[in-house]
Design goal:
67% helix; mainly alpha; 45 residues
């Protein structure tokens, strides 16, 4: 299984823009992984 996320390390520019990119990916991970685990657990039942 693969969950795709943008690579925040590739962002260039001001420090705030770079930090925003890392925060966005962190938030995407925080949303997608729990949903993935829930779906997987329900599929196993």
């Amino acid at each position: 299984m693969h969950l795709g996320f943008r690579d925040p390390a590739k962002v260039t520019g001001a420090e705030e823009a770079i930090m925003d990119a890392f925060r966005q990916v962190r938030d995407e991970i925080a949303q997608k992984v729990p949903r993935l685990l829930e779906n997987w657990i329900h599929a196993q039942a």
